[in-house]
Amino acid sequence: MSSTGTKLAAANTVGPKPRLRALLVEDNALDAELVLRALRKDSFEVSAVIVQDEDGFTEALRTHSPEVVLADYNLPNWKGMEALNVLRRQNLDVPMILVSGALGDVTAVECIRQGATDYVLKDGLARLPEVIRRALQEKYERSLRHQAERDLAKKVDELARSNADLEQFAYVASHDLQEPLRMVAAYTQLLSERYRGKLDENADKFIGYASEGALRMQVLIQDLLAFSRVGRANGTYSTVDCNAVLEEVRKTLGATIQEGGAVITYANLPGVWADRTQMAQLFQNLIGNAIKFRGEQAPVISIQAEKKERHWHFSVADNGIGIAPEFAENIFVVFQRLHARTEYPGNGIGLAICKKIIERNGGKIWVESQAGTGSTFKFTIPLDSSDEKDGKP
Predict the structure, then answer these.
(1) Is 130 found in the same domain as 47?
(2) Where does the pLDDT of residue 12 fall: very low under 50, low under 70, confident under 90, or very high at 90 and above?
(3) The pTM is what?
(4) Of 204, 232, 260, which one is at a domain's C-terminal end?
(5) Residues 242 and 187 in one domain
(6) Is 86 contained in some domain?
(7) What domain range is 249 assigned to?
(8) Average pLDDT of the chain?
(9) How distant, in Å, are the alpha carbons of 32, 124, 287, 355 from that of 370?
């Protein structure tokens, strides 16, 4: 028998049978015939190649493209399990089933652990067709899963590219629009100052609309530019003392805090691995919103943090007007507003910036609230490696 193998074809019987390309690693012609007979019997229309060594096996893989490998455990010049190494070197996903005269349970388990699909004893060949069908079904399901994973990875890459393109577009558009918009705002303001009262009443109204619209568009463009910069900036990461950051935010919002009579409490906040500027922007947006959307009482804002597993869990709680649960996700969408501009100023971009900052740091942000009962914004930030090492509370 040559090392390149001998082809055997099963004869057709009554009724259609599924076709099967099999590669047998076997040195006994009688045993090979018994295996093929078990497959032919009401099971498969088999096209098989029989080999005895690695050279023949490698050649048969190239010329026969088998759907299944049936290997004897011990051959004079080769071991059936070594066929697995050849399959792996060629990156082939072909089920390999051991068909052996004697194979102890310990050996069988070890073979399966190393990568064999299953095993069948030669005195139990009646179960071989079912073992093959199961192996082929598992391979089919595996191929579907791998294809789904490849499709998902492709979609993720496409989405990442799309998001990067959108961020680039938003940055360029908002940056390049500032100068012409500044000219529009300046000249409409000049028209308003120079010709107010000199034209008819409608003219004054129209000039006012144009001036107001230009100024609002300027604020909108600046907000969009701020949002796009969060995604573009590499940031300078270090251990950021949140207590010190909040002191800076209190100074920045000093006039707003004083005007609203807000009381802000926090203590013993941790240091986090983040960009200091973005952390300040995060707290400034959350505190600013808590003051803006206040109720009849003066704003009371409490900021706390605790360590849970591998993250710091922060909470920013207020006693403001609250948010209905059905809007708990929408508020983090860019330009999403729940109130008219006449009620509360702004473009609805602050919380979108907060979400982007937190997600860039590997955390998540959400809100727990009921309308009229205040809001608690919660977010997580992964522990600094030094926190885990030192076991800081």
Answers:
(1) yes
(2) very low
(3) 0.51
(4) 232
(5) no
(6) yes
(7) 237-390
(8) 83
(9) 74, 68, 18, 20
